[in-house]
């Protein structure tokens, strides 16, 4: 992928991010504590900002910290945000905290994924609902959106697949806006091909973006679980790896689902 910074230097990258965020030069200047004239000069290449100003502009545009490093490099500065592997000893406290969150969410399913939707870690609740999924789909790197919508994944057990598939596709599309990536764009195209046709009429239970998951467990009793999802981003992280992680947790939408998960998951 050709990054925004490589394609047009700092000036082009800043214009691209501002356009993507639908922010005017004046609004950006107010947010960053500078003048519209200065922003205009930076975007035209007539002025080269210092490192602190680049960081302020990037923060004002909610540019992910991976791409902030690219902006700094485009302007001739060294990156300021480290990017460690998750198994780095310095990140051990973070890993421990994440595992505690996953375990503490039991018996309800929860996963931690990276910016591409690839599985980083999961709890026993997620292992339970993915029983019977084609082992090939569960071979690392495991794409959680693909597991959910693939015909050899969970798709055949999702009762409201026609609505929920497009909810997932919308979530991946939104992530591709936050973290531009050719890989995410390819994943969106793949998921669109896997999904049923977008429903012309929404069900009476449709709640806009709040689309509950109705999932059958399979097996002899084949119970229907009704789940809602929550997403948590690590917005205050200064390490690229941690900042790109996302916690996706499933919660029971009714007492029957809560009781069923407590029975089905042993922890």
TrEMBL record:
Residues 14-68 form the HTH cro/C1-type domain. One of its GO terms (molecular function) is DNA binding. Transmembrane segments: none annotated. PROSITE patterns: HTH_CROC1. Signal peptide: none annotated. It comes from the Bacteria. This is Transcriptional regulator. It comes from Micromonospora arborensis. The lineage of its organism: Bacteria, Bacillati, Actinomycetota, Actinomycetes, Micromonosporales.
